[in-house]
Amino acid sequence: MKSLFDLGHNCAKLGLFPVAIEPDHVDIVIEYLNELELDFTAKAVVPLGYDWTCHKDGNTSGKCEKSFNSFDSPQSKDITEVLMSKID
Predict the structure, then answer these.
(1) In whole angstroms, what is the distance from residue 54 CA to residue 59 CA?
(2) Is the pLDDT of residue 83 over 80?
(3) Do residues 48 and 79 make contact, with C-beta atoms less than 8 angstroms apart?
(4) Against a cut of 0.85, is the pTM above it?
(5) Can you give the pLDDT at residue 58?
(6) Distance between CA atoms of 11 and 5, rounded to whole angstroms?
């Protein structure tokens, strides 16, 4: 992917769309993934957030602030702290 448009476009090709994940939703999503018996030790990714600063103001340097929000909007609530607390 080379742009934010690519993110939405590639999701749409799979019949998916970005959703707003609030900080209090993260535990619910992780619980659901556990119920699906997802192997968290496998080299697979379940993206829950996006660092919109990677493309802020035309940023093409690839430098990001490691600040995560939902995929639906850079104005969504910051979920960085809650996501990082789930990393073992």
Answers:
(1) 6
(2) yes
(3) yes
(4) no
(5) 65
(6) 10
